[in-house]
Structures are given as C-alpha cells and as structure tokens.
Design brief:
With about 800 residues, the protein is mostly beta strands. The chain has 3 helices and 44 strands. It is globular. The relative contact order is 0.11.
C-alpha cells in the first residue's frame, strides 16, 4: 500500500470517528419532552406533585388538574421520580427516550404509622376539613373501645373529661353540637344516657372504617345543621378476603370482609363489658354492663356505572347495677371531709338501636353522578331504678358530724325515637369546578313517658321541710308523642385554580332547612378559601366564615314547669328557635424538616358570635336544656398542633388550645358549661430501640375544669370549677408473629399476631365526673365529688388474617 493510500485510509477513519463522536454527543444532548397526569387511587387529580429526573435539576410540579410537562436531556437510562406529601414515592424508568414521552400515574397513599392512628394527607388541607385514616386502632390503650372518637378527642380544639365516655367537646360546644355521618347518612344518639358507665360502644365500628373526615368548625354547606363539628365516616369495600379477631379484659370483636366478583361485604360483631373498669369507682356494688352489636356493609356493582350500597346495624346495651356502699374523701388539708353512703336497691337500663341505609349511585359520565339514599333509625331506651342511701358527712379534722340523712330516688323513664329519611345528591365536575347539590326529607317521631322523683331528709327532717305537707326535693313527669317533618337542601361549588401567586381553592355554598314543628326556616351561607403561595409551597393558608345553626331535636324542646305543690311537668316549647352561630376561622400549616425528619405545625384561630342561645347545664354526660332562647354569647380561641416524626419513622403529635366561652344570661356575663380555658393533648408512639416487635403508645391530656353550679340553678349564679382533668394511658404491644409479606407459607393465612398490655391512669390521678350535693337541716350545701376510674391494667391480643 502506497503512502498516499495509507494517508487516505487514515483520514477516512479519523473523519468517521469524528462523525460518530458528534452523532453520539448530539444524541446525548437531545432534549426530550415528558408530559402526563398524576391522580390518586380514585382518579382525582393531584396538584403540587413533584415530577423530576433523578440525579438532575430537571423537573416540575403538577397543576390543579394534575397535569405536568417539561423537557430534559435524554440518556441511555432515565429515572422519573414522582413524589407528594402523603403518598408513596413512585419511580418509572425510560430507556433512551426521544421525542415526547407520556406517563400517566396513579399514586398510592402513604401510610404514616402513629401506633394506632394512620393518617393519610391525600391532599393539602386547603379547607376546614382534615383527612384522617385508622389502621391500627386495636393497639391503642382504650377504655371505651371507641377508637374513632378517642382519636378525634386528641385533635386540636377537641377535649374530653371522662375516660368512660366517647363524647367530646369541640371549641366550646356541647356533645349535641357534633354531627356524625356514616356513608353520607346522619347518625343519632341515645337521649337517656346520664353517665359514662351506661354507655356502650358507639355505632362506628373501627374495623370497617376506610376514611375519616373531621372538621372542628367552618365546615361546608353539605354538612348538617350543627354548630361545632362534623365527623364524616366512610366504610370500606374489601378488595380481597380480610379478617381479624381481638379480645381484652373489656370485650371482644370479630371482623370478616371479602370480595366476590362484583359483590363486596364486610361483617363486624362486637361485645363490650366495662365491669372491670367501673369496678375501680368509689361507688361499690355489682356492676353488670354489657353491649352487643352486629354491623354489615354490602356493596354490589352490576355495571361499571351503577353501584348499590347497604349498611345494617343492630345493637343492645344493658346496664344493671346493685350498689352497696361508697366512701369518698375530699376537700383540702385544712378542710378534709369524708362522705360515706350505704345503699339499697338496684338499677336496670336498656338501650336498643336499629339502623339501616340503602344507597343507589349511577355515574352518567366520569364527571357526573347521581345518588339516591334511604335510611331508617329506630331506638328504644328504658331507664328504671329504685335506690335508697343512708349517708354521713364528717369533718375528718375535727371528727365532727356535718350532716346525716337519707335519700330515695325512683325512675321509670322510656323514650322511643324513629327517623326515616329519603334524599338525593348530584355531583357535577366541569373544568376546575366541582358542583354538589342535595335534598333530604326526614320524618321524625319521638315518644316519651318518664316519671322520676327524689326524696331526701337531713337529720330526720324532710327536705324541703313544710309543717302541713310532704314534698319531694325533685319530682318530674312527662308524656309526649310528636311527629314532625324536616326538609334540608344545599348547593355548593369547590373551585381550584393555579395563578402566579400560587394555588387557590374556593368553596362556597348555601344551605336551607325547614322544620314543621316550630315552622322555622334556616338559611346558612358558608365559604372557605385556601392558598398555597408560590413563594414558599411549605405554607398553606386558609380562612372560612359562615352562619351556622343548632337545629333543636326533641331533647332541646323539653321545658319544665313547676306547680304550686312542687310537682314538675315537661312542656314542649313550640316557639323554640335554633341557636345561631356566626363563625370566622383563620389558620394555616407550615411544613418543615428537623433533623431530616418531616414535621407540620398548624395554627387556627376562631371566633363564634352566638345568639338565641338555648342555655343548659351538664351533669356527667347528661345535658339539661332550659328550652328557651334566653341568652347570647361568644366563643373565641386558638389551637396549635405539632405533628411529625419526633422519633425517626414514627409519627406523633401534640396539641394545645386556649379558649373562652361566655354567655349573657339574665343580664349577667357568665361562663358557658363548656368554658374549659385550656387543653393539652399528647399522642406519642415509638418502637423499642433495635426492635420492630415492641411498640409503645402513650396518650396524655390536661384539660381545664368545666364550671358547674348547684342543682336546678343557672350559670348566672355562683359557679365553681373543679381541678383539671389529667390522665395518662400507656399501651405496650408485642408482635408475636409477622407474616405481612406471606413468606411463611405454612401459616400464610395469618398476617399478624399482637399481644398487648395497657396501664390506664398511670399516675392514679383522681378526676371528677360530677358532684353529689348534700344539704343539711340548715340548708348548707356540700358538693361531694364523684371520682372517675383509678389505675388499672388491661391485657389484650389481636390476630389479623
């Protein structure tokens, strides 16, 4: 080969190498476009989801419609990362992508384990309603067995003052001001229950719950006419066979769920007996409380657009009690007193509930659906007792006798409630708007036949004392049977948009209601607005305002009239109007990391202007209404919540609230019965170091004492406050068997086995539920505290299949 040919060959090879290098560099530097849409597991768009190329600065966030689009430099292998707070991070791999690529992704909610409570933040809380989800409730120390309500009681602005009751107060409201829904149907509560000892399990079965929405105020127009809070429960449709069995010293429950083609079903059976817990009360005797209920949730989808849902519930709660004696020491070091009572008689109470709902829902398109709902609720309540007691009240310091006497109480009370409702809801989504409208008709029947009285004497003298006749200290009877109709309508729109200033959410609506009993029509406009600023997406701001009403039910109508001979009868007040509350709520969240662990700090302030107040007093968990719009008032306060991983990979929270609830009664400003001033809740969970088998959950609270007065006197008189409610419960759980991934084929039908040990009221603190008033012959009154439960140990186990 000549030198010339060799030179030409070398130049060709050199040029070929240059061309290949340039081609390779051009290909590697080629831009690729990635676009698509991100949704949740229900197909709803997820705004603010981050879409990025791993290892580069290329990426973007999704808009309000969940869509995204950006360009990046291609490579042999490109990993696309999708992330959003509250969802599992997803990754997709592209091989030598070119041109335009499209990825539509459905993100799965991230389970944040808090021990007993699992919270999913499916979207940012831009309105007044927060999303909560329960996963492991049975590992939480619980005296009531009502996991949902106990979790709600630890939220900001919420408090409880009895571990025996599932009732809770929200931002200065009483128990009756909280509305509860299950699958869109309002739930009612018994009216005769007067103490936590009588309460059974609530109608909410935590084993069947899928989603929980809770609002402490400023809620949307779709929710009913209550002033304080909304608890909206959605039951779960099983996706496969699932089951669990649990038991403790307080009861047992069994749950079975399955999916059979287009049909799903879940069945729950529960039994509770709190005789072990109430045995620590100072009032000794034979406690025999028992609660049994059965629930079923069935769903059938014959086509992809039509779905039928049915919920059935039946329960029986029996409370039998034969008291024997009681000894209570109270007072101070300087004024120590002892109260001793010996009882005779017994009490027998019974509460039966039937509840059912049927819903048919048809989806015309992916953006339009119509649901028709029918529900029926029936309850029978009976309270009977004849109990006498001989008591001695002594001053232990001077050994002097302050009072001695005897009382006899009698009751034959019966209440029956029947509510039938028929309703329809229409949902329409267009662009950034989500329109929702609904109408409901309710037929309510309430029957009451009650008779109760109390006779009391002191040192042999009947109280009250008259020379010519004998009177009871309390004597009341009532008989009524009323039927009424209630119409409820609402329309609302939720609009979300993305602007240069950030992401905005606006929810506005109007609610109308009419009750045939008092001929009252209510008009309730409501609005909430949320904003995620573009300058810092870690902030979320929200505000809400509206006019809310506490529409009266039967209990609120009962006005007592006392005759000249001392007999008291109940007259239903047809002129009673709904209490009105004009509410303003302003708050926000801030997300941050501390020690590379996620946290969220929430602040909300609120003000409620109250008019047409139907004043009331509270004795234990029973509310007595004046049945008159005889006062006005206000509630104002601020709530704080810090939520996050105080311990790596385990979420906990702390809440603190300050509040003032006042009313103007008979021209005098005085506290409302729910004016607790402050409240602190702690929920902390952790695993033992180096172990995933041992888990600890701690619940603690300190709530300011609620004001109270002597019996049958108003709050405008002299009121008192007991000591704060203070309690700490600790639960220890040991995972005996872990087969989450079904690696153990021999025992593949068992998922988990947990053993648990709880310590209730760790520090043995004496908390007061109510007071028993003793009057001596000189009309001096003494408030004897009724203490709640002491320190106790509970053992439990849970098997999941």
């Amino acid at each position: 080969m000549t030198r010339k040919n060799t030179f030409i060959l070398c130049m060709r090879l050199f040029l070929t190498a240059i061309i290949l290098a340039i081609t390779t560099l051009a290909a590697s530097a080629q831009d690729c476009t990635l676009r698509g849409k991100v949704t949740d597991n229900e197909g709803q768009p997820l705004p603010l989801a981050t879409v990025r190329i791993e290892g580069t600065a290329s990426g973007t966030t999704t808009g309000m419609d969940g869509k995204y689009s950006f360009t990046f430099a291609t490579a042999d292998t490109v990993k696309v990362v999708f992330s959003l707070l509250g969802f599992q991070t997803e990754k997709r791999t592209l091989r030598k992508p070119t041109g335009t690529q499209n990825i539509t992704l459905q993100m799965r909610p991230l389970t944040i384990d808090m021990g007993e409570v699992t919270v999913k933040e499916t979207t940012r809380q831009m309105g007044s309603t927060q999303k909560l989800d329960i996963e492991h409730t049975k590992r939480m120390p619980s005296t009531t067995g009502n996991a949902v309500e106990e979790m709600i009681a630890t939220q900001a602005g919420v408090s409880t003052h009895s571990e025996l009751s599932s009732q809770y107060n929200v931002r200065g409201g009483n128990f009756d001001e909280n509305v509860v829904y299950i699958n869109g149907v309002e739930i009612f509560k018994p009216m005769l229950i007067s103490s936590g000892q009588q309460e059974g399990l609530s109608i909410i079965n935590p084993n069947m719950v899928e989603d929980i929405s809770f609002s402490a105020g400023g809620f949307e127009a779709k929710y009913g006419d209550k002033m304080s809070s909304v608890l909206d429960i959605t039951y779960r449709r099983p996706k496969k066979f699932e089951a669990s069995v649990s038991a403790s010293l307080l009861g047992a429950d069994v749950y079975v769920g399955a999916k059979l083609g287009k049909f799903t079903m879940g069945h729950g059976f529960r039994y509770k007996s709190n005789s072990y817990v109430v045995s620590s009360l100072q009032e000794k005797g034979e406690y025999s409380p028992s609660y049994i209920d059965y629930q079923t949730y069935m769903s059938w989808s014959p086509t992809g657009r039509l779905t039928f849902d049915f919920i059935g519930h039946i329960s029986r709660n029996a409370f039998n009690f034969i008291p024997s004696n009681r000894e209570t020491n109270f007072g101070t070091m300087e004024e120590a007193k002892a109260f001793v009572v010996y009882f005779d008689g017994e009490e027998h109470d019974q509460f039966r509930t039937l509840f059912g709902t049927l819903q048919g829902k048809y989806r015309f398109t992916d953006k339009n659906d119509l649901a028709l709902l029918f529900s029926a609720y029936s309850s029978y309540e009976r309270e009977t007792y004849d109990i006498s007691g001989e008591y001695w009240l002594d001053d232990t310091k001077t050994s002097s006798q302050l009072g001695v006497g005897k009382y006899l109480t009698h009751a034959r009370n019966q209440i029956e409630t029947d509510v039938i409702s028929v309703g329809a809801r229409y949902n329409h989504r267009v662009g950034a708007h989500n329109f929702l409208a609904g109408v409901t008709w309710k037929r309510e029947r309430n029957y009451e036949n009650t008779r109760e009285w109390e006779r009391r004497d002191s040192a042999g003298y009947n109280k009250p004392a008259f020379a010519d006749h004998l009177e009871m200290v309390y004597n009341m009877k009532s008989k009524a049977d009323i039927v009424s109709n209630r119409w409820e309508m609402f329309v609302q729109d939720t609009w979300r948009t993305e602007r240069k200033s950030g992401i905005w959410s606006l929810c506005y609506g109007l609610r109308l209601a009419h009750w045939s009993w008092n001929k009252e029509t209510l008009i309730s406009p409501r609005v909430t607005v949320g904003w995620v600023p573009s300058w810092n997406e870690n902030f979320t701001f929200r505000a809400g305002a509206g006019i809310y009403y506490q529409a009266p039910f039967y209990k609120e109508l009962r006005d007592t009239v006392t005759s000249a001979n001392g007999n008291t009868s109940v007259v239903l007040n047809r002129d009673l109007k709904s209490t009105r509350s004009i509410q303003v709520v302003i708050g926000g969240d801030y997300k941050f990391k501390l020690g590379n662990r996620p946290f969220k700090f929430t602040v909300e302030g609120y003000y409620k202007n109250l008019s047409n107040l139907n004043t009331y007093t509270v004795d234990n968990v029973k509310i007595f209404y004046a049945a008159n719009n005889n006062a006005s008032g206000y509630v104002t306060g601020i709530d704080f919540k810090l939520y996050g991983e105080f311990i790596p990979d385990h979420s906990s929270w702390i809440t603190f609230s300050l509040m003032s609830a006042k009313q103007k009664l008979n021209g005098t400003w005085c506290p409302q019965p729910t004016d607790q001033i402050y409240n602190l809740n702690v929920h902390f969970t952790d695993f033992f170091p180096g172990s995933t088998r041992w888990q600890m959950t701690l619940k603690g609270c300190i709530a300011g004492g609620l004001p109270f007065t002597a019996p049958r006197t108003g709050m405008d008189k002299v009121s008192f406050r007991p000591s704060p409610y203070r309690r700490v419960d600790i639960g220890l759980s040991y995972r005996l068997f872990n087969n989450e991934d079904r690696h153990n084929h021999k025992w593949r039908w068992i998922k988990n086995v947990w053993l648990g040990l709880d310590c209730f009221n760790v520090f043995g603190l004496n908390n007061v539920s109510s007071y028993y008033w003793v009057t001596d012959v000189n009309d001096n009154q003494y408030a004897v505290p009724n203490y709640l439960t002491g320190r106790q140990i509970n053992a439990r186990f849970l098997v999941e299949f």
